[in-house]
Amino acid sequence: MTIGGFGGLLHPSVMDESSIWRSSSEMTALILAAGTFCILASAAHCTSLFTVMARVRRQRTSAPQAEVGVSILRPLCGIENFSEATLRSTFHLDHRRYEILFCVASGADPIVPIAQRLIAAHPEIPARLLVGADRISSNPKLNNLVKGCCAASYPWIVMADSNVLMPADYLRRLLQTWQSDTGVVSSPAIGCMPHNFWGELECGFLNTYQARWQCFADEVGLGFVQGKNMLFNKAFLAANGGMRALASELAEDAAATKLARRRGLRARVVDKPFVQPLGRRTAAEVWQRQIRWARLRRDTFPLYFLPKLLTGALPPLAACIILADCIELPVAGIGTVFLALWYGLEAVATGVAGWHLSWRSPLVWALRDAVLPVLWIAAWAGKDFEWRGNSMTIADQRSLG
After folding, report:
1. pTM of the entire structure?
2. Closest to 325 measured CA to CA, from 8, 27, 104
3. How far apart (Å, rounded) are the C-alpha atoms in residues 309 and 375?
4. Pairing of strands 8-9, 182-187
5. Where are the strands (E) in 16-94, listed by range?
6. What is the DSSP letter of 97?
7. Residue 270, pLDDT score
8. Contact 247, 139 (CB under 8 A)
9. Please, which of 34, 85, 188, 371 could form a disulfide with 211 given CB 3.0 to 4.6 Å?
10. What is the edge-to-edge ordering of all strands in the sheet holding 229-233?
11. Domain regions of the chain by residue span
12. d(C-alpha 56, C-alpha 220), whole Å
């Protein structure tokens, strides 16, 4: 066979050897790439889960100042599952000096009678219901909290969503987390008491996905704030723009994270996050919540959001299957073993942490991981989401500053 450019003859056996060599090189590259990714993803999975297990067992030795005064701001909007229980928990904390400021935008809100009844039932705890909203942003929760921040009597401020169930040592754990290099302390929500399959799916998103990675990020010095629970020093917040500084982003937790980092301080996360009882959920409610968070994260921290496409079990499982096929191992068997180990460790971490765990947990974790790529794509595909019945669009908050 004549090769025009060389004017020579190439024996067919030489071509076969050349093709085999190229095929072998490509196969080696594929094996190396699949194996490397599978190892790295599995290492990240294991390290993050072991980090969670270590953190929940950690005993903080630094004692908080028991006498510091704390103002707890709880924004109210409508009645949720367990509303009365979560709000009642605010009155049973073991801290000596604190006040409760319930904030509601409208006096006609159905949650108002519940808040008033709880205040009347606990006269020993200073508590007030503040009505009205100051529009400083497109974030209705932040607008609702402005009056509470202005009315706060104490030098420490906690902003805690109404659906957080506070343990007796709630304030102690927040204060113990504060260190000299801290700008804000936060806690992700841990889902508990799901009453149906979709509630369990939300637990899967909240616990060993979002809370796990948030705790791991804090462990390596890259803590992010979640707006469920936030502890601020009032003087620090006032000196850096007050509530308007938290209005610089549509999400107040993203603004708090960036504020702390601009001042050379850390956003720290408590070792043992606080729970949120879920009750019954619908598929639509779970999706709406996750797409809201995904679009806000994509907008506020795009470089950190990009690699989320590779999280979950599906990408490393695909790499594991490719690797098994390349080296002629039984694909089905290898894939089954991989998933058993992957979700088995997640179950162990969940049990050690004391988070919700049931026979359905591995099923909902698998569904969660299957949804993650879809959620990632949807986050980039739009800017709209819904929050507490409010249709919102990601926009430049500077125009409202």
Report:
1. 0.88
2. 27
3. 9
4. unpaired
5. 70-76
6. S
7. 96
8. yes
9. 188
10. 127-131, 98-104, 70-76, 156-160, 229-233, 182-187, 266-269
11. 28-54+304-397, 62-281
12. 16
Name residue 99's beta-bridge partners.
Answer: 71
State the pLDDT at residue 82: 95
Higher pLDDT among residues 270 and 387, named by residue = 270
How many whole angstroms separate alpha carbon 211 and alpha carbon 205?
A: 8
Helix axis angle, 331-353 to 361-381, nearest 10°: 100
Could you tell me where the DSSP H helices lie in 263-360?
A: 283-300, 302-305, 314-326, 331-353
Q: How far is the C-alpha of 122 from the C-alpha of 118, rounded, in Å?
A: 6
Instruction: Give the homologous superfamily in CATH for domain 62-281.
Output: Spore Coat Polysaccharide Biosynthesis Protein SpsA; Chain A (3.90.550.10)
Q: What percentage of the chain exceeds 70 in pLDDT? A: 89
- What secondary structure does DSSP assign to 251-266, as a single string? SHHHHHHHHHHHTT-E
Both tokens assigned to 298: 């994509």
Gap between the Cα atoms of 165 and 276, Å rounded: 6
100 in Cβ contact with 90 (< 8 Å): yes
pLDDT at 394: 72
Query: Which pair of structure tokens corresponds to residue 283?
Result: 């598929």
**pLDDT score, position 382:** 85
Per DSSP, the residues of 208-245 read IIIIHHHHHHHHTT-----TTEEEEEHHHHHHTTHHHH
pLDDT score at 250: 86
CA distances from 274 to 191, 194, 236, 260 (A): 9, 15, 24, 22
Q: Are strands 189-194 and 127-131 parallel, antiparallel or unpaired?
A: unpaired
